[in-house]
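wait is this the right file?? whatever heres the structure
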């Protein structure tokens, strides 16, 4: 079980200070970007409906020109770069609006704030990378887990200290992190399935990683597990289940000093072929009996 009296050593406490502050600034940058988009919407500019990232190279060029006073939508649209070039006709329509000097003033401040936050985040990331050097091997191991990138791996190390001896089992780690569903039963009836409060910094990083892993679909075990759970649990609970699976893998990886071994996107099909076939085509669908015959080897 978790040692309640555990106090992280100073290097881990410093890492937590850095990674938590980086997460705080990243969240603030997201909010500032949302304020920028709201300002554009107020001016009737629908750039986000065409550009995936309005803060990309093309978006920044157009925003900069708008702020400087350019109002010709054709001139603005022509600033599109690379993959945005084919979208010029859509950009022309999206850039039609009533962008006034007032909007330009506020958008300029939003962009300046976003750039300041980005610079601070980069500075923090550089220092975190330096402080993480003693854990380089663990970072590489964690990066083998689908959905886990450099940033998430650094948060896992900072919050757990990479010390799995603190947790008797993977379940204890999941419970501590707050990604283990609560079980409140009385007379055989389950009354609550809410997740417990846990380490919010680790929980947030796991949430981002789980979303990324869920998009791997049938390419990985985690992607297949998500697709399997969504119809029964819904997207939100399926993501929490994925976080639990990922943290279980983390415990085993750091405990036994091994890389992640993916069971494969076809794991559930291999484990129960008949059930997989029933999911593809329901029995007696549309009044027909469906039969599956094995393919003869050539």
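ok assuming it is, sequence goes like this
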């Amino acid at each position: 079980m978790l040692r309640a009296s555990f106090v992280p050593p100073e290097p881990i406490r410093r890492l937590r200070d850095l990674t938590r502050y980086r997460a705080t600034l990243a969240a603030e940058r997201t909010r500032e970007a949302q304020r920028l988009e709201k300002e554009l919407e107020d001016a009737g500019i629908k750039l986000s409906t065409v550009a995936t990232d309005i803060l990309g190279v093309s978006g920044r060029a157009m925003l900069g020109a708008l702020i400087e006073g350019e109002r010709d939508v054709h001139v603005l649209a022509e600033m599109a770069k690379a993959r945005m070039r084919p979208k010029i006709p859509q950009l022309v329509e999206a850039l039609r609006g009533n962008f006034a000097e007032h909007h330009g003033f506020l958008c300029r401040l939003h962009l300046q704030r976003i750039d300041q936050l980005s610079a601070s985040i980069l500075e923090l990331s550089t220092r975190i990378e330096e402080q993480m050097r003693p854990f380089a091997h663990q970072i590489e191991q964690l990066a083998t887990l689908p959905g886990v990138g450099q940033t998430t791996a650094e948060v896992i190390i900072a919050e757990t200290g990479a010390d799995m001896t603190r947790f008797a089992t993977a379940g204890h780690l999941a419970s501590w992190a707050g990604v283990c569903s609560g079980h409140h039963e009385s007379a055989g009836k389950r009354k609550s399935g809410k997740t417990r409060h846990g380490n919010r910094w680790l929980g947030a990083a796991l949430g981002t990683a789980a979303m990324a892993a869920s998009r791997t679909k049938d390419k990985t075990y985690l992607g297949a597990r998500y697709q399997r759970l969504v119809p029964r649990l819904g997207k939100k609970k399926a993501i929490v289940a994925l976080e639990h699976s990922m943290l279980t893998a983390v415990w085993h990886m750091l405990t036994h000093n091994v890389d992640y071994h993916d069971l494969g996107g076809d794991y559930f099909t291999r484990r129960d072929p008949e059930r997989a076939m029933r999911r593809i085509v329901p029995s007696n669908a549309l009044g027909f009996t469906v039969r599956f015959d094995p393919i003869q080897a050539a």
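Strands lie at 184-186, 189-192. so i think its the right one actually
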